[in-house]
Amino acid sequence: MADAAPTPQELERPKRPRFFWPGGLSARLLTLTILFVVAAGAFALPPALASFEEKWLLDRIRAAELASLAPDATPDRKVSQQIAAQLLEGAGVTRVAIQTEGMRRLVLGGPSLKHAPYLVDLRDQAPVSWLIAPFQTLIGGDGRYVRVVASPTFLRHADFVEIVAPDAELKRGLISYLWKLVLVAAFVSSVAGFLVYLTLNLFLVRPMQRITRAMERFRADPDDARARVQLSGRQDEIGRAEAELDRMQADLRVALNSRARLAALGEAVAKINHDLKNMLTSAQIASERLAALKDPKVSQALPRLERALDRAVKLASGVLAYGKSQEAAPETSSVRLAAAVEAAAEEARLAEHDIALAIDVGPAERVTADPDQLHRILANLLRNAREAMEHQEDRTAPGRIAVSLTRLGDASLVRVADNGPGVPERARERLFQPFAGSGRPDGAGLGLAIARELAQGHGGDLTLAATGPGGSTFELRLPGAPPPAPTRRRAAKNSAT
């Protein structure tokens, strides 16, 4: 299958620079683990080298301090040049000096130096210079000497001990120690990195791979049993992701099943739509023949029959659009609400079931709506209220429905309140969803879904404002609030416009 062409939004979106990562998440994780462990070893390298150099210099200081005690053991406090050379060689230095009570004295001296030595004062060394000193030794040239000053250990009366020593041996020791550190760090980094990688791969990468496979299988076939993610019971973010994915899959399966049922319904309705329209056409022809009769009773009932047939024909014509989840755009006009409520109550058969209707709306009060779609909305609301009260087993008071109108700025708010049993708790969350919002076993759950879709088509909405054991109140919000027309006598009781 060819790749889908990029959308205009994707083309306009600026491309961000991306790093190249080899392989999948496991390879990236291994690479990052190695880099971080190596970086940690690199940070530990300067202190280790500085400690090695400081220890090496202190060892030379202590050896030189012990060698300086030899002249004090002789009667004249002097040693021969041969013994002095042996003492200096044994201590690994070329000169030893001691300062006592402000007087500096050369105890053991060797040949003169070709180059001036560089100074390292171990008594008060700053952290930065302490860390930099080993690298200065390593990158320095050959044949250099180091002059070291430190506090005495054995000569309690001395102020400090000073030595001069060649740094060649120190440099060789630093290089040898550096290689040992690198080898040890490489081994530790490899072992630690591998263990960290295995741990993260076990606790993060594999669960993510399992979640990803479940998502891919669900995308390919939502009905595949293997597409359901296996919950591990973890309480961390991975466990929450698994639980949320499982709930999302369940919700999507319900939605897909609902769409499939709607599609099947649309297909079935499409098949009977042609025959239904023919039946309604025949009924219209029959009504025209009845209109030719001079019977007063027929003339009185005929307008109701004609309006019902006209609405049925329009509904049958738009049934295919509803099967495609589409409704015709409303053709709004100024509609008298009281007359529209009376016509809807007649279709909902409230009087036949002894349901009292209180219309708290003036005869001239109007709303802006499509007359036919407003009739369907009101009829569905009144019919639902009547059926809910009919199925109420412990009902003692007579059924009653009240309709009122309120102006909210430039919008009209129609309230339909009843004294029925209220909407069950289990049906409230999906009250306006097709096939899911009915609270009665024999209900299809389409009336409120259709009513809300028609209200939203007007740019308004239909909501459940309140519900409980004392009844329910639905609010129909319609944009536009036309001023009421002057009060006048209505020509027909059930006129909707």
Low-confidence parts lasting 5 or more residues at pLDDT below 50? 17-21, 487-497
- Number of DSSP-assigned strands: 12
Helix content: 40-55%
Return the average pLDDT rounded to an integer: 77
Global outline = rod-shaped
> Tally the helices: what do you get?
12
What is the terminal-to-terminal distance?
56 Å
Task: Give a description of the structure.
This protein has 497 residues and is of the alpha+beta class. The chain folds into three domains: 25-184, no CATH class; 233-326; 330-391 and 398-424 and 447-485, Histidine kinase-like ATPase, C-terminal domain (Heat Shock Protein 90, 2-Layer Sandwich), CATH 3.30.565.10. 51% of the residues lie in helices and 15% in strands. The chain is built from twelve helices and twelve strands. Strands 2-1-5-4-3 form a five-stranded mixed sheet. It has a five-stranded mixed sheet with strand order 7-9-10-12-11, covered by helices on one side. Strands 6-8 form a two-stranded antiparallel sheet. The longest helix is centred in the middle third of the chain and has 55 residues, at 237-291. The chain is rod-shaped, with a radius of gyration of 48 Å. The model is unreliable at 17-21 and 487-497 (pLDDT under 50).
Q: Topology, please?
A:
Layout: H1 8-12, H2 25-67, H3 81-91, E1 95-100, E2 103-109, E3 118-121, H4 127-139, E4 145-150, E5 160-166, H5 168-220, H6 237-291, H7 296-317, H8 319-323, E6 333-336, H9 337-348, E7 356-360, E8 366-369, H10 371-390, E9 400-408, E10 411-418, H11 425-428, H12 447-457, E11 461-468, E12 471-479
Parallel strand pairs: 3-4, 7-9
Antiparallel strand pairs: 1-2, 1-5, 4-5, 6-8, 9-10, 10-12, 11-12
Helix pairs in contact: 2-3, 2-4, 2-5, 5-6, 6-7, 9-10, 10-12
